[in-house]
Amino acid sequence: MTLWTKEELLNALKNEIIEHNFHQDFAIDEVVIDSRKTPNSGLFIAIEGENNDGHEFIKQAGENGCKVAIISKKVDTNLSTILVKDTFIALYKLAEFSRQRSQAKIIAITGSVGKTGTKEMLKKAFDTQGKTFATLGNLNNHFGVPLSLCNFARDCDFGIFEMGMNHANEIEPLSKLARPHLAIITNVGAVHIEFFKNEEEIALAKSEIFLGLEAGGFALINADNRHFDFLKNRLHALKISKEISFGQRNNANYQIIEESLIDASKSVVTAKLKNDKNISYQISSSNPAVIFNSIIVVAAVDLLGNNLEAAIKIFSQIESPAGRGKIDEINLDGKNIIAIDDTYNASIPSMKSGISHAVNLKNILQKNRVIVALGDMLELGEKSDAIHEEVLQFALNKKVDLILVAGSAFGKAAPKVLKNNFIVFENSLFCANEIKNLLKDGDILYIKGSRGMKMENILKNLK
C-alpha cells in the first residue's frame, strides 16, 4: 500500500506550503530526513539542524532515489519540491496527518532503561495480533517520533512508539502527537541525571507520556519502582483512572509470581493477570531485566490485543541482540567462557541488574568465577563520582571475583571502594588487549559501559 499520495501531502501541508512544482501524480513509499538512507519513491525532508542543513544534501537524496523534497529555501534540483515555511513544522504536520488517518491502537513507551528492548518484544507480540508498526532502532526524540509517525502505514492495526528524553518538557509534545491508547513507563532511575536535580524530577519528566493519552486510555506503571507512588499520584492529579501496574512485588495487577532458570539462555515464568488468572510461558533468556519486561508485554497484549495465548508464544523465540544482554559461549584456547554482551549503553539500574544476572548465573550453573568489565557511565554531571562508587560497592557486595574498569570515572572510584581484585584500564582497547590473559576456564564475563566507551572492543578481541 502506498504510504503517501500527492493529494495527501498537499492536504497535510496545506497551511505551510508557499509553492510546489508538481506536474504529475506520484506515490511515496518512505519518508526520510537522512539523505544517505533514501529509498526509491522516497520523500526527503530537508531539516535545518544544529550541525547540518538538509538542503545541502538534496542532490544526494535524488541520486539515491528520492522523488520529492520538502524544502524551506529554494535550491537547484531536478526533484519535485514543496517549498514550506519551516521543514521541521512540516515534519510534524505530516506526522499529525498520519496519526489522524489511522484507526490503529497506539502504544507509547518510555523509561530510564529497557524501553528499546521492551519495544522490540512488544512488536513481536503484537505481530501475532495484527499488522503492527514499531519505531525503528531508537528513533525516539523530537525528530525520531514524528518521522516514525510519517512512516506509519494507514492500514496498521497497532503502532508502538518509543519516546526518550534527557530534559523536561520533551516527552509531552511527542505523546500529544502520537495520542496513545496505552502509555507505558518501564521504570525511573538515574539516567540523564546530569540535567535534573534528582530522580523525582526524572519521574515527573517521564510522566509527561500520560499527557497525550486518548480518552479512556490506560497508563501502565512499574509497581516495583521506588517512584511508583509518585507516578500513581501524578495519574490521580491528571484524573487518569485507568491505572494499571506491573511487577514482581506489591501485588501488581500483572505480576510475575515465579521464574525458574533452565539454562544460561532459557527460563520459565509464571505470572498473574489482572483478573487473577495465572499463566505460564517459556522465555529464551535468563536475564532478570528481560524476564521482568516480559510482564509489560503480557499486560499490553491483554489490554489491547485479541489473543494473549498466541502472543506469549513469541517469548520462546526471543533472542537478545548484540549489546543488549546477548550470551556468547566462547572457546578461548581451550578455556570455555560465558560472555554476556551488554555493551550497548549503561546506567546505574542497568549495571546493577546485569551484575546480579551474572552472579546469579554463576551460582545456578556452578561456574568458577564472575568477572565484570565495566566502562564509564556518561552524562551524570556532578553525581558521577557517587554513582560510579555505588556501582562498584554493589559489585563488591555481590562478591564479584574480579572487577575490570575502563575510563577515568571508574578509574577514580575503584581505589576508593575496592581493596583488591580489580584492575584499572585507561579505555576499552587497553582492557581488550589484556583480558585474554585474565580469563580462566569456567568464567562468566559480564561487559557493560556507556555507548561512548565502546566496550564491545573487548568482545571483538575475544572472538
Describe the structure concisely for a colleague.
By secondary structure, this protein is α/β, with parallel strands linked by helices. It is 33% helix and 25% strand.
Topology, element by element:
Elements: E1 4-5, H1 6-12, E2 17-20, E3 27-28, E4 30-32, E5 42-45, H2 58-63, E6 66-71, E7 80-84, H3 87-101, E8 105-110, H4 115-127, E9 132-134, H5 144-150, E10 158-162, H6 171-178, E11 182-185, H7 199-206, E12 218-222, H8 228-237, E13 243-247, E14 254-263, E15 266-272, E16 278-283, H9 288-304, H10 308-312, E17 326-332, E18 335-342, H11 348-365, E19 369-375, H12 384-397, E20 402-406, H13 408-417, E21 422-425, H14 428-434, E22 443-448, H15 456-462
Parallel strand pairs: 4-5, 5-6, 6-7, 8-10, 8-11, 9-10, 11-12, 12-13, 13-14, 18-22, 19-20, 19-22, 20-21
Antiparallel strand pairs: 1-3, 2-7, 14-15, 15-16, 17-18
Helix pairs in contact: 3-5, 4-9, 11-12, 12-13, 14-15
State the shape: globular
What portion of residues belong to β-strands? Answer: 15-25%
CATH class of the largest domain: Alpha Beta
Separation of termini? 43 Å
What is the name of the CATH topology of the largest domain? UDP-N-acetylmuramoyl-L-alanine:D-glutamate ligase
Largest sheet: 9 strands, mixed
Category from helices, strands and their pairing = alpha/beta
Mean pLDDT: 93
CATH architecture of the largest domain: 3-Layer(aba) Sandwich
Q: Give the number of DSSP strands.
A: 22
| The CATH homology group name of the largest domain | Mur-like, catalytic domain
Helix content: 25-40%
Task: Give the low-confidence spans.
Answer: none
Numbering strands along the chain, what is their spatial order in the largest sheet? Answer: 9-10-8-11-12-13-14-15-16
Number of helices: 15
Give the count of structural domains.
3
Specify Rg, calculated over alpha carbons.
Answer: 24 Å
